[in-house]
Write a structure and sequence with these properties.
Alpha-Beta Plaits, GTP binding, Rev_trsase/Diguanyl_cyclase, diguanylate cyclase, alpha+beta, 9 strands, diguanylate cyclase activity, two-stranded antiparallel ribbon, 5-stranded mixed β-sheet, 2 domains
Length: 473
């Protein structure tokens, strides 16, 4: 559940006031767009409140439902003369809000598939159809005494407005997160410019088919931009088209015995079109998430959560071209936990795994952003520091050895003290790639690590450096 200081389970009074204000503000916004009595060009309130109830599940109880309903009744009582008709009209609003919220909450509880949206895009589409039909049923009956229109035209207008607004607004609000704006460059702006060009073409050409002109550009956006940004672009595009149709800037002509008005067809078409970029964007986000997950599994060690052997090579390949020739220094520190086999044999592999993970966390904290820390296998680890001088690498090695020696590793009410042996190799690799340099330095670092163990372990051994520990080289 998203955290919010205005909507919190721990602050019911603040939540109630916030919900009342949200209802009143969006009711005012929708009422200001009324084109015929009780009918509005847009009615965002229902979709907004449904999104609020979905994102904050604790609000789904009769008290908060009644509070929203009361806010609607009070607003109508002050601004209209509908009388008792307002009770049924606003009841229809609550039908849409509660239906969508409960259906989405139900699917979230039952779903086992991770998705960038709380539910599958097609499910949200179907929920909006069902909720809009129920809402239109009550809304049309309630509006008949106010508008003096027949049931069917009112039902069609209620249904098309609730459905289109829900499909456009809900994905935007449900996927909303910290802004993930794409990098500003001409190439990244092409899909957005494509949407604008297609909108201009819709106005110039006209006809029902022109409503679909932005669809290819929206799908292009879906493959290039983050999901929240795609939902926002789709929302703006859809609402813009509705405004253009309502003001006859885009002309749509219908000849049918079931003719209501051009807004019915426009809203349904726009809402259906809006589903396509949403599905593409959700698919792209899901695939990217799976790729990132697979990449992390390959590049990171599951137990210690530090880089794996393949991960350190991937880092070296990626960074090889980033360092200037004058700064292509490479320090490699090979680490091996002393007498680690005794821990596994005496205390078991569960204890050994716990110590390995904690050891990695201790060392990783010391290394910080100075270099990359990886597990090469078993109890052997490596630190790779590009652009680090030999003196700084030696200092880092001493800090790690001392920190590990001082750290207390707890396991089942028993404190373990471990030590680590280190072999350090440093070179200036002006011509070779970092990967080739690393392979050469690993051989030398391994030789110094062997010397450190010979000198009694708990040592740092490197070229022309006194061994730091109980012995001297």
């Amino acid at each position: 559940m998203a955290k919010n200081r205005f909507l919190s389970r721990e602050k019911p009074l603040t939540s109630a006031v916030s919900l009342f204000v949200i209802t009143t503000v969006f009711y005012f916004f929708g009422a200001s767009l009324r084109v015929v009595e009780a009918l509005s060009l847009f009615w965002p309130l229902n979709a907004v409140l449904a999104a609020v109830f979905i994102r904050y599940p604790f609000l789904n109880n009769p008290f908060y439902y009644a509070l929203c309903y009361a806010a609607m009744i009070i607003y109508d009582g002050v601004t209209t003369s509908w009388g008792t008709a307002s009770l049924l009209i606003n009841f229809s609003n609550m039908v849409f809000i509660i239906t969508v919220s409960l259906l989405v909450q139900r699917e979230k509880r039952r779903s086992t598939i991770a998705s960038p949206l709380p539910v599958h895009a097609l499910s949200l589409f179907n929920y909006c159809i069902f909720a809009a039909a129920l809402c239109a049923l009550f809304g049309a009956v309630g509006s008949m005494p106010v508008d003096r229109h027949a049931f069917y035209p009112l039902f069609a207008d209620w249904f098309s407005e609730q459905f289109s607004t829900g499909v456009l607004i809900l994905p935007c609000l449900l996927s909303m997160a910290r802004p993930q704006w794409p990098r500003l460059s001409l190439e990244n702006l092409y899909p957005l410019l494509g949407v604008v060009v297609c909108m201009v073409a819709s106005v110039g050409i006209g006809g029902a088919g022109s409503l679909a002109f932005p669809l290819p550009a929206l799908i292009w956006c879906a493959t290039r931009y983050p999901l929240p940004f795609v939902c926002l672009i789709t929302l703006i595009t859809g609402m813009t088209e509705i405004v253009l149709v309502a003001n006859s800037i885009i002309e749509i002509h219908m000849t049918s015995p079931l003719y209501v008005n051009q807004m019915f067809s426009a809203r349904l078409g726009i809402a259906t079109i809006a589903l396509c970029p949403l599905m593409v964007s959700v698919s792209v986000e899901t695939i990217n998430a799976l790729v990132r997950k697979a990449s992390r599994r390959a590049d990171y060690d599951y137990l210690t959560q530090v880089l794996s052997r393949s991960g350190i090579y991937e880092k070296l390949r990626n960074e090889s071209d980033c360092l200037a020739p004058s700064n292509r220094q490479l320090a490699v520190i090979l680490l091996d936990i002393d007498h680690f086999k005794n821990i596994n044999d005496t205390w078991g592999h569960d204890c050994g795994d716990k110590i390995l993970a904690e050891f990695a966390a201790v060392v990783n904290k010391v290394v910080g952003d100075k270099g990359w820390f990886a597990r090469m296998g078993g109890e052997e680890f490596v630190i790779v520091c590009p652009a680090m001088s030999n003196a700084d690498a030696i200092l880092l090695g001493h800090q790690i050895r001392e920190r590990v020696e001082q750290h207390q590793f707890a396991w089942k009410n028993h404190i373990h003290h471990i030590t680590v042996s280190l072999g350090l190799s440093w070179t200036a690799c002006a011509s070779a790639s970092l990967e080739a340099c690393f392979n050469a330095q690993m051989t030398e670092a391994d030789r110094y690590l062997y010397q450190a163990k010979q000198y009694g372990r708990n040592q740092l051994c490197a070229q022309n450096v006194p061994v730091m520990g109980r012995a001297a080289s």
